Structure formats: C-alpha cells, structure tokens
Amino acid sequence: MLATSGWIDAGIINAGDGTHEHPTQALLDAFTIRRRLHKAASRGKGLDGVTVTIVGDVLHSRVARSNLWLLTTLGAEVTMVAPPTLFPMDMTGWPAAVSFDLDDAIDSGPDVIMMLRIQQERMNAAFFPNSREYSRRWGLDDERFARLAPTSIVMHPGPMNRGLEISSAAADSAASTVLEQVANGVSIRMAALYLLMSGDREES
Amino acid sequence: MDNTATRYLIRNASLADGTRTDLLLFGGRIQELGTALSHAGATVIDADGLIALPGLVDLHTHLREPGYEQSETILTGSQAAAVGGFTSVFAMANTSPVQDTAGVVEQVLALGERAGYVTVQPIGAVTLGLAGERLAELGAMATSRARVRVFSDDGFCVSDPLLMRRALEYVKAFDGVIAQHSQDPRLTEKAQMNEGALSSELGLAGWPAVAEESIIARDVLLAEHVGSRLHVCHVSTAGAVDVIRWAKARGINVTAEATPHHLLLTEDLVRGYDARYKVNPPLRRREDVDALRAGLADGTIDIVATDHAPHPVESKDCEWDAAANGMVGLESALSVVQASVVDTGLLDWRDVSRVLSAAPARIGRLASQGRALEVGAPANVTLYDPAASREFGRDKLAGKSTNSPYLAMTLPGRVVAVFHRGTATVLDGVLRAPAELGGREEPHHG
Fold it and tell me: Is the pLDDT of residue B325 over 80?
C-alpha cells in the first residue's frame, strides 16, 4: 500500500510484513539453494525440478509464503508439511503439495528440507497439545535427519529452537545451510538496496 | 419559521407500485392524495420522474454521541441520514457512556429531537457497559421517555448463552427484541478479514463464517425455546442465510438484516489494504453476496440496515491491523440498494419501501414511521430519482466522517427531497440548514 500511495517517491523494500511476505528471505533462500546445488556454475541457473519441503508453522509464516512464490517461479516443486492447525484454512490456490506427515515427506527424498520456527506463543493457543508432541511428529530429530539422502540440504531461517523443530545434530551438520543463509542474507540485501537505488544494469 | 406550517404540494410523483399521484403535505400529515390537487398556498415540488417512498428507517446506525463526537454527533448523523433519504434512525448503544440506563437513552432522544432532521430512536444495551456480564436495566429503558424496544450490545456479541436466554425472555414483558451481533468471540480473536483463500494468501487472521452461523443457530433455537423475538444484525454469510431460512420455516420469530455494503462489495477489496474496506463482519465472498441478495428477495432477510459507523481519518489512515472496523453508509444506502438488488431485477420499489421503511419500523415498534403513503399518515416522504447516476464523492457525505467505501464509484439514483413529519429536511438534493427546519438548531452536549 505504501508503495502505491503516492505519499513518497523513495524506493521501498518489503523487509517482512506481518504474516504475509518476506521477499528478501526468499531471495536469500533461493540463492543459498542454488549455490549449494550448482556451486561455481550457479550463476543464471533456475531451480528446475528441485524438490523443497517446508515444515512447520505455515499459517503464521511470511517466510513460507514468499518462498512458495519464488521457488515455484524458479521451477522448484514445493511440499508443505505441518499439523492441520498450522496450515491456512484454504490453500487451494497455492502451487504446493500439502501433507500432515513429515515421515512420508522425508522418505520421498527431498533435495531441500526447510524447517520453520515454532513461536512460543503458539504453544498456549491450542495449535498443538505441547512442544514434545510437536517435536515427535513434526520435528527434524536425529532419526529423521539420518534418513535424509546425503545430498539433501537442511535449511532454517533462524532463530532456531534446538530440540523442538530441529535437533542440534541436524542444525550443525554439513547438510545445514543455516550459517550460509545468514551470510547470504547480507549479500542479497546489499544487492537489493543497490539495485533499488541505482537501477538494474541493463537499463543504465 | 415553523416548517410544519408550510404546505407542500408534490406534483406527479410515482408511488412504489407505479401509481402516479400528487401528495399534499400539511400539519405534519399527508392531507390529500390524488391528481390535480389544488396548489393554493402551497410550495409546489415537481416530482415528475421521481419515486415517492415512505421515509426510510435505519434500524442500525452509530451516531457516536455521547462520547465519540470526533466521529459523529447526533446532529451530523441526523443530517447524513436526511441526505440519504431517511426520516428515522435507531441509534446503537455503544456510546460513552453506554446507552444502558434510562438517563442516557433519554439524552440521546432529546438530542435527536433538538437536531430535528430525523426521528432518533435510541437502542438500549443488553448488558451493563456492553460487558456481557449482567443485564442492563432493560425495563427502565423501555418505560423511559425514549420507549426503547430494541436492545443490542452491537459491536459485541452476547456470547454467554444463559445471559442471551435471560435477555430474550425478559424483553417479552414489553414486546422488546434482542438485536444480536452474531460473532463467536473465541473463533474470531484478532480477526482481520473473511477467512478463506484470500486471508490464507495475505496472512491476515481470518474471521470464519462459522463464527457467525453458529451463534445464529444457537440464538434461533433459544428464541424458539423461550418464545421470544430475535433480530439478527448484519447477516453476512450464505450459511447464515440458510440457518435463518430454516428457522423461519420452523416458525421461529426471527428477523434479519443485511447491510448495503454486504450486498455490493466483496473481500477482494482487502487486497489493497485500504482500511476503508475494513468492517465487522468483514466483506465476504461473491457467493455470500449472491446468497444475501437471494435471501433479501425471498424474504429470509427482512430489512436492509446501514450499520453506519463513522470513524475519524486517524482510525482509518493506518496499517490494516490497527484500523477501526466500520463504514459510513447512510448517505449512500438507497443508491447501493438500487445498484445491488433493484437494477439487478431482484427487488422492485415496493420491496424497497418494505425493506428500508415498513419492516424496520415494525421490528423496532416505531408506529409513527414506515407507514404507507396514505391520507392521514405522518408526512414522512422521500422523493428519489432512480434515473440519475452520479460519481459518489466526499461532497455527497453530510456526516462528520468520510470513511465511505464508495468514494469515486459511480452509483445510480439520487435523493431529491425528504420530508420528516411534514418538514422538508432536503430540497433539490440539498440539505436544509438547521435554522430552516424551525427547530432549535444549536448543537448541545448535555
């Protein structure tokens, strides 16, 4: 709304609006996936055929929404996994598969598994019985982590609840991109600011 | 000058049934009907091409005074009503102090009389302070000079089933009605918009249809059980229409209203985050709009009521979550009804006079209003030009607030003249000044 209001002529970057979207997080996540998969040859490549499973509080997640639109635009296949209470009510228009079963999702061998943070306040609002049950059914624990293919990538936007949605072994493993996501976030946001203020290269 | 002393001859108007007639208004009543009436001593109004409707009655208006005079006063709200073709409004109880005692409802009544544009009929709160805990003094309000018959905690739902049962039972003593704001509070915590595909995409907290429908289902069964009268405010979902249709078929004494905005607008408008479209209950899906129109056409929904809810700019010119719920609607109501259900062939003008005048007056037990245009009836008359078409701008608003969802839209029709008990409040589409009404015009905070 701000961008179209006519009140200001400055450029505007959405740095995350409520539970709607977080575009620069999606950009840094897509960038991180591409770097991991294609290494030095990643420039200009899409994510065609890459399978991404996003797990957790989709209902309240701006990260999940922005990743859905960007990753599918780049050609990835997205599956979302959550307890039914933490999905939005109507996802018929979303280009994503929906599942309540994390074990099924793990066994389908995703290239990327992205764990979302469970906020403390959800625990007192009857979205799920308690944190232990959540962790047992929807957490990436050591046993589930061991079943992932050795080439799979484990992502998390941070900050993490270790032992709740992700175990320390998974978070600190070689498969984890958590620290790369943080570092890439700086580059991506610098790039976004630079392009916004200077115009893109083709036009200038 | 006392305007009831003015004799008005309305020439060649069409009644709602299509009959052409002159109307002679004098002494606050319709003195004569017929063709070619004598115009001796009368101010003549050429009504060729205009429809004469009984003065409109709004069962659901927020006038904001006492307490929220930055949004509206009883005077400015009365003026907005007159410009919209109304001769009576029922003033909702969520003022500050709340209209929950005989003293406050009498104050609102007196301020309405002083303003003089419309009959202001106060609504009483069901519970003390709208808190949903203890019944307000319903009997005292009923026997006060304000003669309250409609009781509502509107803005809040009387969600406690036992309290709702007691309220329904209690008002039988004076032929009252409970007008329920049907919203399960637990199912709608922090709700921002209709729950569905769009709220899922936008990440805004949803207001599910079931939160409205489950309360209506409970309340019609309670009304049946205790044999009392229930009125359902601002029905907004297709499922709610079904529940009310079922209740009426069962013989339950329930009436229901739809707002103009729920008959015309859909939730897609939320996408731009313009808080003028934020309202409670929220704008719903196209299917819901269609079901409301069908319900109004088949009589399941008895009336149209505006839920006129003025808010100052600072309550709307902000982020969606922080914005207040509500839209102003008095000035635009008749045009929106024409656009949504008359021009679409669902209602004729007789139906319009029923849903916007006769039925709301009957539900609210306001005998002086909503009467057919007959000799001897109070001279509450609205002249309307259905052939007009106009861009609805701020200049069409007469109240204090500008939170209308219709600004910049083209709407059909135009209110040309309004007579309240024989006094012209609007002539040539222009609101008359307080001094011209012959009443005491000074605004007053008692």
Answer: yes
Q: Which tokens hold the place of A25?
A: 């997080």
What are the angstrom distances between the C-alpha of B318 and each of A130, B68, B274, B313, B321? Answer: 36, 19, 9, 9, 8
Q: Could you write out the DSSP letters of every residue in chain A?
A: -GGGSSS--S------BTTTB-HHHHHHHHHHHHHHHHGGG-TT---TT-EEEEES--TT-HHHHHHHHHHHHTT-EEEEE--GGGS-S--TTSSEEEES-HHHHHHT--SEEEEPPPPGGGGGTTSSS-HHHHHHHHSB-HHHHHHS-TT-EEE--S---BTTTB-HHHHTSTTB-HHHHHHHHHHHHHHHHHHHHH--TTT-
Overall number of domains in chain A: 1
pLDDT at A8: 80
**Binding-site residues of B for substrate:** 62-64, 94, 280, 311
- Alpha helices, DSSP H, located in B305-399: 333-337, 349-353, 359-363
Considering only CB atoms, B195 lies closest to which of A1, A4, A89, namely A89
Task: Using DSSP bridges, classify how beta strands B430-431 and B119-122 pair: parallel, antiparallel or unpaired.
Answer: unpaired
Best probe of the B interface among A2, A7, A17, A61, by most B CBs < 10 A, is A17
What range defines the domain where residue A99 resides? Answer: 46-193
Question: Tokens standing for B201?
Answer: 């995409």
Chain B CB contacts of A92 under 8 Å are 197
pLDDT of residue B191: 97
Are B200 and A90 a contacting pair at CB < 8 A? Answer: yes
Task: Name the helix (H) or strand (E) containing B426.
Answer: strand B423-427
CATH of the domain at A96: 3.40.50.1370
Cα dihedral B292→B296→B300→B306 (10° resolution): 80
Query: What global pTM score does this model have?
Result: 0.92
Please write the tens of the pLDDT for every residue from B140-150. Answer: 999 999 999 99
Q: Which two tokens stand for residue A71?
A: 């990753």
Length of chain B: 446
B39 contacts: CB under 8 Å, gap ≥ 6: B9, B11
Domains, chain B, with CATH or none: 3-51+377-437 (2.30.40.10), 55-363 (3.20.20.140)
Residue B196 is nearest to which of A18, A62, A89, comparing CB atoms? A89
* Structure letter (DSSP) for residue B124: B
User: Per the domain annotation, does A29 fall within a domain?
Assistant: no
Q: Are B90 and B357 in contact (CB under 8 A)?
A: no
Q: Where is the binding site for Zn(2+), in residues of B?
A: 60, 62, 154, 181, 234, 307
Question: Looking at this predicted complex, what is its ipTM?
Answer: 0.87
Task: Label the pairing between strands B86-91 and B119-122.
Answer: parallel
In this complex, is the C-beta atom of A18 within 8 Å of any C-beta atom belonging to chain B? yes
Asked if pLDDT for residue B2 goes beyond 80, the answer is no
- Residue A99 resides in a domain: yes
Surface of A (69-128) touching B: CB under 8 A: 88-94
Contacts of A91 in chain B (CB under 8 A): 197, 200
Position A95 in a domain: yes
Task: Answer yes or no: is A71 within a domain.
Answer: yes
Return the active site residues of B. 307
Give me the residue label for tokens 């400015």: B76
Q: Are A191 and A31 in contact (CB under 8 A)?
A: no
According to DSSP, the β-strands at B177-180 and B193-194 are unpaired
Interacting residues of B258 by C-beta distance below 8 A, sequence separation 6+: B234, B235, B236, B292, B295, B296, B301, B303, B304, B305
